[in-house]
Design goal:
Two copies of one chain form a homodimer.
Chain A (H helix, E strand, L loop, with lengths): L4 E6 L7 H4 L3 E5 L4 H10 L4 E4 L3 H9 L6 E5 L20 H4 L3 E5 L3 H8 L4 E5 L4 H10 L4 E5 L8 H17 L2 E3 L1 H13 L3 H7 L1 H8 L3 H7 L7 E6 L4 E7 L11
Parallel strand pairs in A: 1-7, 1-8, 2-6, 2-7, 3-5, 4-5
Antiparallel strand pairs in A: 9-10
Helix pairs in contact in A: 6-7, 7-8, 10-11
Amino acid sequence: MPHDRDVQVHLLPDLAPPDRLAGGLAVVIDVLRSTTTMIHALASGCTAVRPCLEVEEARQLAGQMRVGRVLLGGERGGLPLPGFDLGNSPAEYTAKACCGTTLVLTTTNGTRACYRAAEAERVLIAGVVNYSAVCEQLRQDDRPIHLICAGTDGEIALEDTLLAGAFVDFLCEVSEVRLNDSARLAWDCFENHGQVLLGALQIGKGGMHLQRLGLAEDIQAAAQVDQFNLVPELRRDPLRIEVGAVGIVQSRWPKLK
Amino acid sequence: MPHDRDVQVHLLPDLAPPDRLAGGLAVVIDVLRSTTTMIHALASGCTAVRPCLEVEEARQLAGQMRVGRVLLGGERGGLPLPGFDLGNSPAEYTAKACCGTTLVLTTTNGTRACYRAAEAERVLIAGVVNYSAVCEQLRQDDRPIHLICAGTDGEIALEDTLLAGAFVDFLCEVSEVRLNDSARLAWDCFENHGQVLLGALQIGKGGMHLQRLGLAEDIQAAAQVDQFNLVPELRRDPLRIEVGAVGIVQSRWPKLK
């Protein structure tokens, strides 16, 4: 008899114990906005994303790269950083800006989630914008799954939990699973908010903050289900994110109201 | 125009920032089992509960009290402790055992939640078993509310989140509220599991663990909606829990299936 597949949600990076991630498949989720931005950047022609925890580290790393082949992007408190090329708005990452460059990116919550997730054997980067493509990768893999939510400034975020719940919903459909309690909560969240996605992204703390900053368009961008069919994947030495698999077999998100 | 009332859920004690609790009303939730046990003990005639973080601290405190006037209770890993009078099963706390005694209690998760909650101005102790009585106190108070879930060994627990969500549901009905993202998640959990309460308590990690230990009856005991009409409240100098308000105006839990 095959084992049930372990599907664990960690509602914050700090709630994902590094030793439990070992040997597993981790999915990093920061819907507003860093994983959405990474997907946009790679889709627009960046060859890799180099996540940095600290602003100064990002500056130094970018400084070592060839001018014209590097983009320095990110935010603190949601706002662009002085001297950086771009902020953390997905729409800034156009083909013109991105083509052939390496993106050095530092964000408040998402890069931290990437570093924690790096304890896992394989790491994928997910947003609403590449949901079904990530589903396909989860289906093809057989490792235990860890869905790691970035949250907002150390607080659990509604939008990340919602997307984690969408993956739980998919996984429950395609295999026998063993869920942790947080996976059940995420599933509940998806059941109640999955069909009113944009509204859910707007009422959470992160979404409210973006609206106050005049960045409501970023929420719209983050809510575009299956806009892309690529799955960014973490590579090592040095730690970076590149396009991994590409392709959607079937759109998985329920119809939006 | 009156302000919306702040209602925040903290899905683990460590996720409740002490400085934010100041001036607020905190509700400690550890359905399986410590807050349920505290309510049973006080209803059965204990005059106070003295929560202790460490086993040795509990032993010493009990050792200083008059023989026959103290009960030493608690668990580690769900199991009773050597030399202790009682474990952490609500049904052990009978009138015969409790009458006129002080309960010195140390548990893995619940006592920790009490200490974090003590940063708030007023602290209530809640279980499913005194749900509507706690609702009545929340309605009468006007401080910002913090619902603090104990969780299970550092992990978010379904049953605690469910009860927190039941309070959110009540508070949304009786006043204008401002919810944090975790409060929305808890509310989702309550909406999906509130009518199948016993089943929800059985599928969570804590409930599964109790069943493996042969303590399934404790889950039944924890699921008795409104069995009691008393609200334990934290007092200080020394830190202890005593019967605060008593009384249910109206049963608030939705009909169980």
